[in-house]
Design goal:
By secondary structure, the protein is mainly β. It has a domain of 188 residues: 7 Propeller (Methylamine Dehydrogenase, Chain H). It contains 1 helix and 24 strands. The radius of gyration is 23 Å and the shape is globular. The termini are far apart.
């Protein structure tokens, strides 16, 4: 610098900082938490049951909650088809903390990341939604098939068409696989509904209203089909992160089966006639939704 500065800059530390630091023995503690959940090999029991009213004063119709999912913070997202809304429910306060009006009828919702969800819409669209602060719509994927069941894993969307196919798309909308038949050419689906992905195994579970719960690997190859007299018109399926699957439908019981053996462990509840089921593995909460203004939350153990 050829020109001499005409100011001097100094710093005077706050003396209270020094005295505050002297009171501390450490700067903090390190905690280690295992992210792997312990497997459960027995039937859950119901510890408590609650109902949450999710109807808003501005809703035009009775609620029809066709899809639901728990997100990372333990709150619940609901796709209200009758009112074209995505609703964000605080479980601890039993209130709808936020809602978002959508351009078309929402079918199913799933979480993409801590800050993002995706919703399948009736106009062949996947709508992405920001979960930061208040919910807000972001980008869309316009697809060439019906979008109903929806699940996400490792940059891929698994989508059922409410009929005879399940699709795998990447996050740009490019179709990677269209799954309709097994390796022998046998049609796998006739009424494909909700989809759930295993957190422990390379498995995709699809509830088919006519055929039961169909298991694929994540490449779309057929693995098995589960049927049982207690499962009538399979509609929804979800996993608990501990090696179990819950199956619900409009006209049968809530059934728990083992991912490892593909066998029924028992009936959790009788005749709930639910439209969707979702599970929070951190709190052991099972949410069931209906053609109703209320959502049932089962606390399991």
């Amino acid at each position: 610098m050829r020109k001499e500065p005409d100011v001097e800059i100094g710093f005077q530390p706050d003396v209270k900082i020094n005295s505050f630091l002297k009171q501390l023995q450490t700067l903090g503690k390190i905690s280690i938490t295992s992210t792997k959940l312990k497997l459960k090999t027995t039937l859950y029991t119901k510890r408590a049951e609650n109902e949450i009213n999710v109807k808003l004063t501005t809703d035009r119709c009775r609620c029809y909650i066709s899809g639901s999912c728990f997100i990372s913070d333990g709150s619940l997202l609901l796709a209200d088809s009758n009112n074209n809304r995505l609703k964000h429910v605080n479980i601890s306060t039993a209130t709808v903390k936020d809602h978002l009006d959508l351009d078309a009828v929402p079918n199913v919702v799933c979480q993409i990341s801590d800050d993002e969800a995706a919703v399948s819409l009736s106009n062949n669209t996947i709508q992405f939604v920001s979960l930061v602060d208040k919910m807000a719509t972001t980008r869309q994927l316009k697809l060439h098939h019906t979008c109903f069941g929806l699940a996400y894993m490792n940059g891929r969307l698994f989508i059922s068409d409410f009929c005879s196919a399940v699709y795998i798309h990447d996050m740009t909308g490019t179709m990677l696989h269209k799954i309709t038949a097994d390796r022998s050419g046998n049609e796998m689906f006739s009424s494909s509904r909700h989809i759930s992905l295993s957190t422990n195994r390379d498995r995709v579970y699809i509830a088919d209203e006519d055929k039961g719960v169909i298991t694929l690997d994540t490449q779309g190859n057929y693995v098995s089909t589960f049927t049982d007299p207690d499962v009538v018109y399979s509609w929804s399926v979800c996993t608990d992160g501990r090696g179990n699957i819950f199956i619900s439908s409009a006209e049968s019981d809530i059934v728990q089966i083992s991912e490892e053996t593909n066998r029924k462990l028992g009936v959790l509840t009788d005749m709930m006639e639910s439209l969707s089921a979702s599970f929070d593995p951190q709190q052991n909460n099972l949410a069931l939704t209906f053609i109703s203004d209320t959502v049932k939350i089962f606390q399991l153990e």
